[in-house]
Design goal:
single chain; two-stranded antiparallel ribbon
Length: 201
């Protein structure tokens, strides 16, 4: 015999009869239902805080469970096989979602695809290794050239011509930074050598 859930009208009657103090077996007879159906309904949908059964709350909870169940059954193994194939071609979940929607094949969000990938990983699968973020590897700097604080393609001060030190050639540019005490900001001053020579005279 197939189980048939209570209707919203039956839930209203159940709540009203409970308020009148009737036992569950009496309520079951009044509704024309089996006692186990009434017992299961009260147990699943009564408020945890005070143990009261409210028909509108019970109806909302039932609809929520039904909606979640439909969402979980919405995508078939064949749907996920198509998604897996695209992921294995290094497509991102966003690209897979957009491609399938654009071609009218499947309407699935990239968040759902991400959840599918992490469920697969938890089960021992390797789908996550095809995600772009999974391919990034942070190598240690041991024995490597450290380029932090260096400007690519710039000549170090130790290699500049000796004529620069005399400051007699016109046309060289000089740059300097000025920072005040306790300040987090600095000023950059710059000018040509000829200008600075004129100021120093």
């Amino acid at each position: 015999m197939m189980h048939r859930q209570l209707t919203s009208e039956e839930r209203y009657m159940l709540a009203a009869l409970r308020k009148q103090g009737l036992k569950q077996s009496e309520i079951a007879r009044a509704l024309g239902r089996h006692r186990s159906t009434v017992c299961r309904e009260v147990r699943r949908n009564s408020a945890r805080a005070d143990g009261r059964y409210r028909d509108f709350t019970a109806q909302e909870r039932t609809q929520g469970r039904r909606s979640r169940s439909r969402r979980n059954q919405r995508f078939t193994p064949a749907d996920f096989a198509v998604i897996d194939k695209l992921l294995c071609q290094q497509w991102s979940p966003e690209q897979v979602s957009g491609h399938l929607a654009r071609h009218g094949q499947l309407s699935i969000s990239h968040e759902t695809i991400h959840r599918h990938v992490w469920r697969d990983k938890k089960a021992g699968g390797l789908l996550y290794t095809h995600l772009r973020g999974a391919r990034k590897r942070r190598g240690k700097r041991y024995g490597n050239y450290d380029s932090r604080g260096r400007l690519a393609g710039k000549r170090p001060l130790s290699e500049r011509p000796a004529s620069v030190e005399t400051r007699r050639d016109v046309g060289h540019w000089e740059i300097d930074t000025v920072m005040g005490t306790g300040s987090k900001h600095c000023l950059v001053s710059y000018g040509r050598t000829s200008d600075r020579l004129a100021l120093n005279r």
